[in-house]
């Protein structure tokens, strides 16, 4: 740290030079985040100093958090769902696992998730000393339920399914998993970190939420397809009581107990997340998702024309291709199996898709 401070202008010119080094989503086809909507930015700025870690000091922000959970709960067919705003999918998954672990006493607890699950589960299992059992996927990159009985036993405390997988945009056979969870009385979590703000707005109705009776909890991230500022995720639980098993005493706060994992939490990001949902309404969100899905389809068709087929038809706006090379200047990512992976986020407009397809075509020239 410098001894004497510096001029504000000097400082901001330094920051601007660093900002220029960021890619800023231009030609970025690999991210699950996007430009926050101006409405989210405005709402975030309004609540910039708000700390939900001490909610009694920020009663208005705390009520916005409750409204956010109520809004997402009703979107997920359960307006009475409990929940809170996390820092994103990783925290939501960790917390769901903590609840599941505390709800049953197992000598050596294990969890059963698809091999396609996000790496946050690996972190969570390490922290919580849980044995992670991954069920192989079928050729459609979804959990192969036929094999699940080989993985579940009396020490299984958690079953996880994905609604919008990180790598392939697929949805696990959640109706079947919900039945299995009910039959075996196992906590069932749906990781809809990405798909949670896509699937409810699509024409094809894919059940993924509390409409499935076996679903215990769901994670869904406004900072992915909800246009909010970073960081904000939502963890929803079927019964608010489930969160209480995470309570710790917080004697010197304005609330005497807390179940969140993080202490200090951004009220700004929560205000932003709710503001976007209110601003667009279901109709606005449907229109946006329709556009993202049309762009995804256009990309899949265009890539097929150039001889790069998609290994699977995604349910959400994540497309993958057998395509080893990448045209210069574009950021794509690779799945663990080596497929090119492109997330058709809202910043990936139709002209971006056309420009990418053009550059793919040029590689043949
Ligand atoms: N669950 C699923 C299904 C996810 O896709 C992700 C993140 C998580 C949980 C964890 O969420 P948080 O990152 O909010 O904790 N999926 C992307 C990934 O890690 C996130 C991402 C976002 C990656 C932007 C890159 C990027 O530029 O692959």
Supply database-style keywords.
365 residues; alpha/beta; Aspartate Aminotransferase, domain 1; Aspartate Aminotransferase, domain 2; 2 domains; 7-stranded mixed beta sheet; 3-stranded antiparallel beta sheet; 14% strand; binds ligand 0PR
Structural write-up:
The protein is an alpha/beta fold and 365 residues long. The protein has two domains: 8-36 and 281-362, Aspartate Aminotransferase, domain 1; 38-278, 3-Layer(aba) Sandwich (Aspartate Aminotransferase, domain 2). Helix content is 37%, strand content 14%. A seven-stranded mixed beta sheet has the order 1-7-6-5-4-2-3, sandwiched between helices. The chain has a three-stranded antiparallel beta sheet with strand order 10-12-11, with helices on one face. The protein has a two-stranded antiparallel ribbon with strand order 8-9. A hairpin with a 5-residue loop joins strand 11 and strand 12 (340-343). Helix 2 runs antiparallel to helix 9 (267-305) and helix 3 packs parallel to helix 9 (267-305).
How would you spell out the order of helices and strands? HHHEHEHEEHEEHEHEEHEEEH
Helix content: 25-40%
* CATH class annotation of the largest domain: Alpha Beta
State the separation between the terminal residues, measured CA to CA.
Answer: 53 Å
Strand content: 5-15%
Heterogens: ligand 0PR
CATH topology annotation of the largest domain: Aspartate Aminotransferase, domain 2
Number of helices: 10
- Helix- and strand-based class? alpha/beta
Write the layout of secondary structure elements.
Elements: H1 8-21, H2 38-46, H3 59-75, E1 82-86, H4 89-103, E2 110-114, H5 120-128, E3 131-135, E4 156-162, H6 174-184, E5 187-191, E6 217-220, H7 222-225, E7 233-237, H8 241-244, E8 248-249, E9 257-258, H9 267-305, E10 318-321, E11 333-334, E12 340-343, H10 350-362
Helix pairs in contact: 2-9, 3-9, 4-5, 9-10
Bound molecules: ligand 0PR.
Ligand 0PR binds near residues 90, 162 and 233.
